[in-house]
# Entry
Amino acid sequence: MKILVIGSGGREHALCWALQRSARAKRQIFCAPGNDGIAQNVRCVSIKATDIAALARFAEVEQIDLTVVGSEAPLAAGLVDEFAARGLTVAGPSAAAAQLESSKVFAKEFMARHAIPTARFRVAESAEEARDILRRGEFGDEETPVVVKADGLAAGKGVVVARTRAEAERAVIELMEQGRVGLEAARRVVLEEALVGREASLLLWTDGKDYALMPAARDHKRVGEDDTGPNTGGMGAITAPDVLDEATLRHVVREIVEPTLAGAQADRLDFRGVLFIGLMLTAAGPRVLEYNVRFGDPEAQAILVRLESDLADIFAAVAHGNLGATRVAWSSDASACVVLAARGYPEQPETGARIAGLDEAAQQYDVQLFHAGTRRTAAGSWLTNGGRVLGVTATAPTLARALAHCYEAISLINWDGMHYRRDIGEFSRQ
# Structure
């Protein structure tokens, strides 16, 4: 069996690692474009994740049996549609279905149409319209927090939680007129009420009919401890029983998961792949913050280390429409992933610092190191090559022990400018 994984970060390293843990004796895995950490065990191919034509040609020439897409941009650009047109097997949603992530407006209107609980919202087609909506007080007075979201993909930088109306108006100007995330991505914005509560992420596989839930996760987006500083792509994630208790999970499945999948069917969206549901657990009940149409990162790292079933079998079942007949089993452990970042991340990360201690850290009990932004020199030394550099991930019977394993391994790693959060999972440990 030949498998192609598309992407280059810690998420894709975790996917490759999990795909290699197969019961099948022969499995060849490629990653495009991958990174030097992934290349230790997988053949990396120098093709950009968004070069769909080149990826499809490669899959045809190599006779790839299954393609797994890590990030959202190729899905939004129609990779699945192109592969399917060529008769290639791929586990992922069509471009039309990927609009659940690639367009905030599409997602919010989908939720409204199918009565899926979410924050109250308005869509603005211009900065002037957005200011008018804010000044009319539709989301409260001048001191009421408001969330401003660019409609299109913005690499995690298109959402601003404004504490006041004035901040919201500044965010509108930065997004729609100053091109903070690109003018096309912010051609429209969504304004919505700011929800209050704890966040959680529920991911699942679906083949368009059946679904299989993953362990609920909690991400830590802010760069600083105590949730301070700017948002990032994720500074760490945990899975543990108290992220979503059983009663809340049943409620989410009944009121959100199943209506979402039924809505996709009703709208004739070909959704096969991973659905990520970002939740806010409010006093009035769970609300959907956002949909993603692929694994999150670092959530993928924390989740996949607990998978006991064959990941390739699951993705093949997703692609071929027989997920309901496929066993998906998880360990009962908790897990944690702590991201090690470069100085200057997320604004202007430094690269080229020499990393020490990787071999020692990798030998720690129940620890996996997933490479996100590393480069290996001809002499064998490891250098930083991105903002998020490594995901240090561990499992254990309790979250406290999993986190202890992570931080023990981190104590062995060092480079000039390395920083990380020391409070990952803190809420769950209280």
The domain at 2-94 is CATH 3.40.50.20 (Rossmann fold). The chain has four domains: 2-94, 120-193, 198-325, 334-429.
